[in-house]
Amino acid sequence: MIDETAAVGGQLTRREMVRRLFAAASVGTACPLVAASHPIHELLGNVAVLGEAEKLGAADWKPLSLNAQQNESLISIAESIVPGSTKAQVNRFIDLLLSADTPERQKSFVDSLAAFEAESKKRFAKYFPTLEESQKIQLLTDASATLAKEKSGGADAGETPAALHQHFENLKGWVSGAYYSSEVGMKELGWTSDRVFASFAGCEHPEGHH
């Protein structure tokens, strides 16, 4: 374990939280929460951007990269993928990271949000944030399982296209990285204010999937 003192006021900044997460991962004992190929992995190392993360709790916060509808979709999708994401302000942190990303990857993220909204409208004639909880779960479950269905030869009229699976994986990487680099996410993994554990409970899955 890594023993360090907490920041002023007993709370750690997002920058320090990410530093501790990477410090544990660098010794090869902590489970990487996001695949190294995912763009959020690179952005979590951007010290300048992380320094701006402490402003995310401002009452007058406004998105830098997303419009109001995209932000609403992100909040709803993130909460469905990782419960607690709203409390951890995952949408605000992702928006901040996107503001420092390339136009191509910004477009990729927005395209993934749009794909889920399009599928939601197609299936239920409603936007994702307005779906019933069971409908959200159904859509996300189908999206996450698409490749497995195709490889096994399964097919039916309601099967989600493989492309939606890729959009799901893209969003899941962003949401997981943003959530588990927050204080609430780190606590879920076993972190306490005076140390970081060498490995995280319940994090033994390949490719960093919790």
Would you give an account of this structure?
The protein has 210 residues and is an all-alpha fold. It has one domain. Helix content is 54%, strand content 2%. The chain contains nine helices and two strands, in the order βαααααααααβ. The chain has helices at 14-26, 39-43, 47-52, 68-81, 90-99, 103-124, 133-151, 162-180, 183-188, and strands spanning 2-3, 195-196. Helix 5 crosses helix 8 and helix 6 packs across helix 8. Mean pLDDT is 77; it is low at 1-9, 26-32, 148-160 and 196-210.
Please write out the topology.
Layout: E1 2-3, H1 14-26, H2 39-43, H3 47-52, H4 68-81, H5 90-99, H6 103-124, H7 133-151, H8 162-180, H9 183-188, E2 195-196
Helix pairs in contact: 4-5, 5-8, 6-8, 7-8
Low-confidence stretches: 1-9, 26-32, 148-160, 196-210
Give the ordered list of helices and strands. EHHHHHHHHHE
* Annotation field: number of helices: 9
The rounded Rg comes to 18 Å
Question: Quick summary of this structure?
Answer:
The protein is mainly alpha-helical and 210 residues long. It has helices at 14-26, 39-43, 47-52, 68-81, 90-99, 103-124, 133-151, 162-180, 183-188; strands spanning 2-3, 195-196.
Give descriptors for this structure.
mainly alpha, 210 residues, disordered N terminus, 2% strand, 2 strands, 54% helix, globular, disordered C terminus
